[in-house]
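Section 3.1: Structural characterization of target chains.
Under the original work plan, the team committed to producing a structural model for every single-chain target entering the pipeline before any wet-lab resources were allocated. The record below documents one such target. The sequence was received from the expression subgroup and is listed exactly as submitted; it comprises 172 residues.
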Amino acid sequence: MLSEALTRAESLIRTIPDYPEPGVLFRDITPLLADARALRTVIHAMIAPFEGSFDVVAGVEARGFLLAGAAAMEAGAGLVPIRKAGKLPLPAASVTYALEYGTATIEAHDDVAGGSRVLLVDDVLATGGTLVAAHQLVAELGGVVVGTAVLMELTALGGREIVGDVHTVFTA
């Protein structure tokens, strides 16, 4: 059961039909991000199960950056961006993974000290491919993923089955 503050925060997430293509229901979190109280509420809910267990928050491009930055500030932890290929000047590691139609690659700088405890943060868990690749990328950099937190899980897409244990604030 969600608290009143979380229920209010969830009500700020818009569903936009047929974006970016017909049949897709896009979850727009920008109204939630624009509301300071709602943003603080969801960030606290995302990191609460992991408090004291991580040194660094790794955020997955692009909306995951926004949540990860706020989570890192709230927890007093460092922040490592995980970017799409070609966006970093000195990528130290990369992982290529399968999409429904093709492949994608994510990269990161070598800013994770060996053995760092990493909380992986993203906005949505859909099919899970990006989060599995992010786990592999953190390991390649020498970090240890101690938890994965997402704002919303799209349960019908089955991502949890391939990612494993994921803490979600909202489900759709």
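The chain has six helices and nine strands.
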